[in-house]
């Protein structure tokens, strides 16, 4: 008997179940594992004995894998749990490896971001130490696109498509009034500006929105920002600004917690970056300003996912399955870009110690000299990732997704 | 020569151009008008001489009407302009009617909400006074669904579909963590709770989110709310609450500007209703709370529109065209519901003085006795309105919309 166990961890994306589906599809084509188990709420499911048999669920659920591929967030639930050092709490490792032995686990797959890759690193190191043959393979996902060792991360392309489409639609909303206005769009990504940069894809032959783009990789100056906005207002009525939630001033202080924010608000800790900038525009330029905090839909709006992203995420799962068969452990599957035009990639892998606990920032050369836009190279990098639309199944006007049915209604 | 002029006004919806397309399609089938003019930025275009010839634009733009039907917000731009009483500023009326005479206008169509219907009322009354033969017909639109005389308003069904889909997707986002949390979703609609009520459509066989729904039609009690949330938290980890931005306490004070808000925040005027409730949950229940202000996408996300809504909106435009031919003036086209199952409607009209300047609230009997949910009758009323998905055309990963190209890039 040779089984595997899969878990999902960290923040949601719309593609994280596609990677799970990819492992399952690969195992249908190429039957290496007898059972695919799913650990509920990440690694915690193993510790708490909450594990489901996905092979059984698939057999009893028509269209399970296809629907799973289009379902947002984590079918298996998530956790925010960083595995302690073995020296701190060896008992946890003992329990995990005892569980693996009991269930005849050949491979553990973890679909997640940086914390999950750290878990893969620790478990694979521990396996070597105790001479366990269990293999550990990480499958990346994050809308932040900030994992090292891979051209981009599953989940990012769909979030980028959501951001670009939303900004185009919000541009239609803003450009209808013949009065001056500024609209600030606050986008997720505290340390890396990839997703904010994707706002550039909203531009088309009739709209240049967003007219200004600010990433956290460059220090943000409020005076510079006001000058940028004023220059834009001379050219058009309705200015749209895309801004990362994580922009900081030259001293590294978050703008959302800046003096300016405190001055305007009294209680800066409750204000998002967008709200702070909205207030500054209102106060200083006396222009109608609005801020939109693009909400959690940027990471869970599966009805607007990128087919390229979903296909690649599934392929990452299949690649992980193949790498397990080849005997690899302590690795993360990766995407290597062969060319932009035609867009060609291939799946590969990287040693987990080279990727875990690191952040991939936007290269400085892909940010405009003035720090208020991105370059053509960024557009060429981003554009292939949002291509294609999956056929979402609707019933009674709503998209059809999956959720675990062994709990009572959520 | 017999021409008409169309204008659009008020806040955006995704269906307002479908009504414009409906007038144009009807005129192709049944050539009553020689030219269809479009007034840019509502009635202001007539006053400022900013009028385009839509018949000409259509001839020179392949697929114009089809693409127009799927384009959000106002192709012709909008305004927030309430026509003064003739006694206050008769000159405006003189200019408008002189323009109509110069352009040989037979009918003026105004697609909009309450203010636009007030404009139709005033212009049609003035026409009678000065014995002008120009006809005035209103075509309703508002995501708020608060116009009287019609079963529902164009634009509402799509906004309702957006709300329901978004909440389902956000439910997937919230239910992944095995920790207690409360998510507050703040929905547009200051005076009428129709759109907030539409959140009920998100419920399905595995998710009961939103678990609580609060409309502005019932007084909101913070203590009652906390008790409701606590009761829900006993049954599940992740509670979702849909709340109208316009909820008020028993004395009529907005919750967003309440004592509780001021206590929590210092600067209540900057806080939305959702943020206030989030803060109250955090402070009083010591539970992880988050609030999401569903942003302007609820009125402009054309990629997620309701086909039923778009078809009905186009049919409302066609009905307006037919009513003009029949010689009607001083009316608004309406939707009359014949039955829920099968869903059957017919287009009709109402005298404009019976509908202008009134608000249609949610009937009290469609709100649950406890005031924290809606009834089965509400679900039966809402459900048909979100059915069907239009075929949105995507190019390079983005939906393809239209915008006026006679200005420089927006």
* Rg result of chain A: 23 Å
List SSEs of chain A in N-to-C order.
EHEHEHHHEHEHEHEHEHHEHHEEHHEE
Shape designation of chain A: elongated
State the oligomer: homodimer
Q: What is the first-to-last residue Cα distance of chain A?
A: 35 Å
Largest sheet of chain A: 7 strands, mixed
In the CATH scheme, the class of the largest domain in chain A would be: Alpha Beta
CATH topology of the largest domain in chain A: Rossmann fold
Strand content of chain A: 15-25%
Strand order of the largest sheet of chain A: 3-2-1-4-5-10-11
Number of structurally distinct domains of chain A: 2
Spans where pLDDT lies below 50 across 5 or more residues of chain A: 260-270
Largest interface, C-beta closer than 8 angstroms, per-chain residues: A-B, 72 and 73 residues
Tally of alpha and pi helices of chain A? 15
Name the CATH architecture of the largest domain in chain A.
3-Layer(aba) Sandwich
Q: What class, by secondary structure content of chain A?
A: alpha/beta
Mean pLDDT of chain A: 94
Number of strands of chain A: 13
The share of residues in helices of chain A is 25-40%
What can be said about this structure in brief?
The structure is a homodimer of 410-residue chains. With 410 residues, the first copy, chain A, is α/β, with parallel strands linked by helices.
């Amino acid at each position: 008997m040779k089984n595997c166990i899969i878990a999902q961890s960290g923040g949601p994306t719309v593609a994280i179940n596609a990677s799970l589906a990819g492992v399952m599809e690969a195992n249908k084509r190429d039957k290496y594992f007898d059972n695919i188990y799913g650990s509920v709420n990440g690694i915690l499911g193993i510790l708490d004995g909450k594990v489901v048999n996905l092979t059984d669920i698939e057999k009893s659920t028509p269209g399970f894998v296809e629907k799973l591929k289009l379902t947002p967030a984590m079918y298996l639930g998530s956790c925010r749990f960083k595995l302690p050092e073995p020296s701190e709490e060896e008992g946890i490792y003992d329990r995990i490896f005892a569980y693996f032995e009991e269930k005849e686990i050949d491979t553990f797959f973890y679909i997640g971001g940086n914390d999950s890759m750290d878990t893969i690193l620790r478990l694979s190191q521990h396996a070597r130490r105790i001479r366990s043959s269990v293999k550990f393979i990480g499958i990346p996902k994050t809308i932040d696109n900030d994992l090292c060792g891979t051209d981009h991360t599953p989940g990012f392309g769909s979030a980028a498509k959501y951001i670009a489409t939303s900004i185009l639609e919000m541009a239609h909303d803003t450009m209808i009034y013949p009065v001056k206005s500024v609209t600030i769009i606050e986008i997720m990504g505290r340390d890396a500006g990839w997703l904010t940069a994707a706002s550039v894809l909203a531009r088309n032959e009739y709209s240049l929105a967003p007219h200004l783009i600010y990433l956290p990789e460059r220090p943000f100056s409020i005076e510079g920002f006001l000058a940028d906005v004023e220059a834009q207002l001379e050219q058009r009525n309705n200015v749209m600004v895309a801004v990362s939630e994580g922009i900081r001033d030259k001293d590294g202080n978050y703008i959302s917690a800046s003096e300016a924010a405190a001055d305007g608000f009294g209680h800066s800790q409750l204000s998002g970056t967008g709200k702070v900038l909205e207030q500054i525009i209102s106060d200083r330029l006396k222009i109608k300003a609005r801020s939109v905090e693009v909400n959690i839909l940027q990471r869970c709006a599966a009805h607007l996912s990128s087919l390229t992203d979903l296909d690649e995420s599934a392929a990452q799962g299949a690649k992980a399955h193949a790498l397990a068969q080849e005997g690899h452990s302590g690795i993360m599957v990766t995407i290597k870009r062969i060319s932009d035009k035609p867009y060609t990639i291939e799946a590969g892998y990287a040693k987990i110690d080279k990727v875990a606990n690191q952040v991939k920032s936007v290269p400085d050369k892909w940010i405009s000299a003035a720090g208020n836009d991105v370059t053509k190279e960024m557009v060429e990098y981003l554009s292939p990732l949002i291509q294609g639309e999956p056929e979402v199944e609707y019933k009674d006007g709503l998209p059809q997704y999956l959720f675990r049915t062994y709990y009572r209604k959520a």
